[in-house]
Amino acid sequence: MQQLTVLGTGVLGSQIIFQSAYAGKDVVAYDINDEILQKLPERWEYLKAAYRRDIADATDEKLDAAVARIRATADLANAVGDADLIIEAVPERLDIKQQTWEAVAAVAPEKTIFATNSSTLLPSDIAPFTGRPEKFLALHFANEVWKFNVGEVMGHPGTDADVFEQVATFAEEIGMVPIRIHKEQPGYVLNSLLVPFLNAGAQLFVKGIAEPADIDKTWKIATGAPAGPFEIYDVVGMMTPYHLSKDSDDPVMREFAEILKRDYIDKGYLGKGAGRGFYDYQ
After folding, report:
1. Which segments constitute the 3-hydroxyacyl-CoA dehydrogenase C-terminal domain (predicted)?
2. Do residues 88 and 141 share a domain?
């Protein structure tokens, strides 16, 4: 699978694009309008700096070659026309993902395998909208994919076993450690562990127990962990926890979503990639 299309160029979508291109894949970056795509060169510069910092052999030549293998377009049919694999990284809402795959199914070649990077949704809830459920599954990445390089591969009951293994092989080819998930689980392995931890931090903050920096400090000092929940929120970016929290059954988490929207998202404080989130990275 040499020809990759990634749908969505946000925090994680852009990382999947860049990591795949860095590993030698030809990548099409798709988003809904040219205004979004015009911001990508700035994003590539941010990622190039991160690779230089974290990867010993990430030379300027290799990084420039990765950027050269990326093509951006807001034309969906053009984006998917030659794709061997399409990875969807659109906002974490079931209706948006279902509508996206319906549109893709109408224009993608028969050969193309479909994968969602959804953090919490089940592939079986999306598969009927793809037009090819046997070629659809989830491939989930952790944030900062070049460094925290797991690729969780999770099918649904209708996923073809050969397709599953092809996607696991693709994950390995782009530098991921493939984690084969044996049955559907909201949140896979990673987020099944991570989300309750992040929610606990959010609840301490919303209830006025402690400030984010002190919550992070407590966790890091007491456990030796490299990051606390709010540092992780900044890496993930504000949009994903906002979408996950705004319709929660828990009123505290709904209040957390309101705080994210009012005090961070509306001010452009979208997380580490934007230079500011709970912490200022300028």
Report:
1. 187-281
2. yes
